[in-house]
Specification:
417 residues, EreA/ChaN-like  fold, 14% strand, 16 helices, nine-stranded mixed beta sheet, 11 strands, alpha/beta
Length: 417
Amino acid sequence: MILTKNVTDAIRKFSLPYRNQSDLSPLLQEISDVKLVLLGEASHGTSEFYTTRTEITKRLIQEKRFSFIAVEGDWPSCYEVNRYIKGYDTPYQNSREALMAFNRWPTWMWANEEVLELIEWLKDYNETQDQKVGFYGLDVYSLWESMEAIIGYLQQIQSPDLEKAIKAFECFEPFHKQPEQYAVSSALYGEDCMQEVADLLKDIQNNRKLYEEDAEASLNVLVNALVARNAEHYYHTMVTNDNESWNIRDHHMVEALQYIFHFYGDHSKGIVWEHNTHIGDARATDMKREGLVNVGQLTREKYGSQHVYAVGFGTHRGTVIAANKWGNPYKLMSVPEAVEGSFEYYLKQTGDGDKVLLFNESNRRDFNETIGHRAIGVVYHPESEHLGNYVPTQMADRYDAFIFHEVTKGVSPIQQS
């Protein structure tokens, strides 16, 4: 653990006050001309993390011409939003209706008032642009939704791959859209659909010229097929090897990101919104010891650290939207003061107010000790967070910058009709 004096001295010396949006300018200057900006969050339900990422994202798009946003969300739901903000033919009359596409738990992650503001801005911005900014989902969970999207599109264009898609989908039908049932059946009884979805992805890739009349539709069907293959692998694995299922998920996110980059071209630049545990380099945490990788590590390895810029987020206390059990209704929960000895604790000890830390060659050695760093998931138990919500971290190796909001509040979920 870092000695109190060491870390507080370093924070006092290098932190910048964050009082208004203009105070983000030094961060934007540091980002420079990278290919990929990773914007984290310490929870999936904190308003300030969303609003600050929105401000950074707007400036990256306006000032540095970034091409797309990719988030820790399902591809089919995000693609509906993408179609809406680009002005494609959709059933949605406004941004609020478009966000109703996020109807799978935890809906509050993306169907919230904070994201609504971003989507409305993107819609207005794209109406003034020839090259429109996209919005996509990188996650792996949407197995059934992606299969349904594939079949619907292949039927529409009368594709020769339709029969294979229907065969693959029929393999999953006995599990009634319950991933837990499929996971147990495939892992313990050998009843899986691995070959069916692998064959489907292969055929769609081989026949991709059939889908090039509408380039975005081609991207959609290819990534949905990728989701189906990797989701099958994920659910197949999660019962018997939780670490491996984590790795499958993050490898999938990077693979989906590669498809998006290919669609936008060699000179495109992307912004990723995901939890700190995904965007902060796993090698700077105890994840490395457990054999876990993540998006932050994999993208640095793939594109080069000089082309990837990761921004972590944290808070000292406040409230958050989360659930006490997977699948349960969300609640507004209290976030207790950060535990003594954690990074968030020392950020508070060095003075009131929000802060920005920029890690670079001049100060990385001042932040290279291991220290606890809070992480809150969609399932949260504030009363016992000191037992497992703090990730041992070398902060300056995990991130390129860190934004601290001292007091935060929960997001405002949009009520599902």
